[in-house]
Write a structure and sequence with these properties.
This protein has 16 helices and 25 strands. By secondary structure, the chain is an alpha+beta fold. The protein has a 7-stranded mixed β-sheet with strand order 10-11-12-3-13-21-14, sandwiched between helices. Strands 16-20-15-19-17-18 form a 6-stranded mixed β-sheet. It has a 4-stranded antiparallel β-sheet with strand order 6-7-9-8, covered by helices on one side. The longest helix is centred in the last third of the chain and has 18 residues. The chain starts with a helix and ends in a 5-residue tail after the last strand. The N terminus is likely disordered.
Length: 537
């Protein structure tokens, strides 16, 4: 992969406001480590407004499927486990790391004794059991396939939980340090049922107040939170501002204090502004084009027949892949500030291996289309988000693919509407990404496995499924690394998920705010954030 542009971008970004984080070259084993903007002393009080790139989907840990919803959950809904700054799993709502026994088929762990949900319900083993069983069995749950190795959840004491697995599942701890580990109030689940998203209650530094769809989500400090003395802000408002330039303008005006998922254009535009500071980390995730190859009846149904040239013939998909130049996309769309990607495993993590991205080959692409017997230009409707960055990406893909014999029609779609269409199978192709997890299983299993609850295109390949199971049941790091190398190759042979680039997570904040943390999953954490002396708010 090309390293020089990233290094040049890093040098330029150091001219940003004093106290900002510095860029780390892709490949360093620091991707999952939260980074503090700074550690200046802060005062208590004030409201912080965070500008989000898109409107979150349901505020329901079982049903959510978006990075922006997970960003909101960092403030109001804690997990059983988290990842610390050294890429180690640490307890959060759990009181201990799990004790693994019975050849890897039993996970036993204790739960915190000092935590209450925002509605007053007590966190205990029964509460954890209720949430995990909901993740497993609620219709449409995005967590179901993530923890489908769990056969039974038992309480073996007031604060002890035992998971009995169908088979050894090495990545399970990583999933419990992610969305599948989010725990909800059993009182709220019983009261609101499927309408939990309108009345969410969890354990967190802040609690839900109200939501205006498409505009904002308001949270206030939760006095019941077990660590409330470390929470300085009175509240947090998550405001949807899809245009990065407008997010930056709101940062400069003081109407927004933190800008989430800021793009390279906005970051460069903010250089030299002494009222702002930058936080960034390499990403654990990826951005890709997902092709609908089997989502005929909805994501919660079995793969079916999709009657398009792309779904019928892998040669058409390979030709489309070969029409794209990842390095040029990075240069034109992202000013060389991201990194080309051609696989789901983030570099610099313990189980990663180098992957060589295919170069653009228009001649071979045309030969593949001829061999497939399809009439050119081959039509493709590509759904993109309604942001300037996504529009630029779509236009570059459209122009590149045209050279090889494709007629790509762009369909800009508001984020929530696009997600609904995708889950229903009402799409041919879409751009999108995944926030990422340190263990590669978190970037693969639910996204390309036949039964994966986040498998939007419904790829179904026996070799991919076999290797997914092998990765789960194998503990030795060297063997797992080899499995994920083979698994990446097997996924790429299907060309159903075309990995394009791996971004750098950028957040821009007012210099009046201190104590923000950002990790490789792209999530902004403001538990200990606050206004510095003399700051606004």
């Amino acid at each position: 992969m090309r390293r020089l542009p990233i290094a040049l971008a890093a040098a330029a970004l150091l001219t940003f406001a004093t106290g900002c984080g510095s860029l780390s070259p892709p490949g360093e084993n620091t991707a999952a480590a939260p980074r503090l903007v700074d550690a200046r002393p802060v005062r208590d009080g004030g409201i912080a407004v965070i500008g989000l790139k898109s409107d979150p989907d349901k505020l329901d840990p079982s049903l959510t499927g978006t990075l922006v919803a997970r960003t909101v959950f960092t403030s109001m809904c804690e997990q059983l486990y988290d990842v610390d700054r050294h890429n180690r799993f640490v307890p959060q709502l759990a009181a201990s790391l799990p004790k693994i026994s019975d050849g890897g088929r039993t996970f036993t762990f204790d739960v915190r004794r000092d935590a209450r949900f925002s509605d007053g319900a007590k966190l205990d083993a029964e509460a954890v059991k209720t949430s995990l069983e909901r993740h497993l069995h609620l219709r449409g749950s995005g967590r179901a396939s993530e923890i489908d190795s769990v056969e039974k959840v038992d309480t073996v004491g007031p604060y002890t939980v035992r998971l009995t697995l169908k088979h050894p599942d090495t990545p399970l701890l990583g999933r419990l340090a992610n969305t599948a580990g989010l725990i909800m109030s059993p009182k709220a689940i019983a009261k609101y049922g499927s309408d939990f998203a309108a009345h969410p209650s969890c354990v967190g530094p802040f609690k839900y107040v109200k939501r205006v769809i498409g505009d904002r989500i308001e949270l206030t400090k939760d006095p019941l939170y077990y660590d409330a003395d470390k929470v300085h802000l009175d509240g947090v408002v998550y405001k949807t501002i899809t245009d990065g330039n407008i997010r930056l303008a709101n940062l400069r005006s003081g109407d927004v204090q933190i800008g989430d998922q800021m793009g390279p254009v906005e970051v460069r535009s903010g250089m030299g502004d002494k009222t702002l500071q930058l936080l960034n980390t390499p990403s654990l995730g990826y951005m890709a084009v997902t092709l609908n190859v089997g989502n005929a009846h909805g994501i919660d149904r079995k793969p079916g027949r999709v009657n398009t040239p792309f779904a019928r013939d892998v040669r058409v998909r390979e030709a489309f892949d070969l029409s794209l130049d990842r390095a040029l996309i990075n240069k034109i769309v992202f000013q060389d500030m991201y990194e080309p990607a051609c696989g789901p495993v983030p570099p610099g993590t313990p189980l990663s291996t180098p992957v060589t991205c295919p170069g653009r080959d228009v001649g071979k692409a045309k030969r593949l289309l001829k061999a497939a017997g399809v009439r050119t230009p081959v039509p493709l409707e590509l759904m993109i988000n309604t942001t300037p960055e996504d529009n630029r990406l779509g236009q570059v893909i459209q122009a590149m693919a045209k050279d090889a014999g494709f007629d790509v029609r762009l369909r800009p779609t508001e984020f929530a509407t696009g997600l609904t269409r995708t889950l229903a199978g009402d799409f041919q192709a879409r751009t999108g990404g995944w926030g990422g997890q340190p263990d590669p299983a978190g970037n693969i299993d639910s996204l390309v496995g036949t039964t994966g609850s986040n498998n939007q295109g419904k790829l179904s390949d026996p070799e991919v499924d076999r290797l997914i199971e092998a990765g789960r049941s194998t503990a030795a790091p060297a063997k797992r690394r080899d499995i994920y190398r083979k698994l990446t190759a097997a996924i790429n042979r299907q060309h159903a998920v075309i990995y394009l680039y791996r971004n750098i997570n950028y957040a821009v904040a007012s210099k009046d705010i201190s104590g923000i943390a950002l990790s490789g999953d792209g999530l902004i954490r403001v538990k200990e954030a606050g206004y510095v002396k003399g700051g606004q708010g």
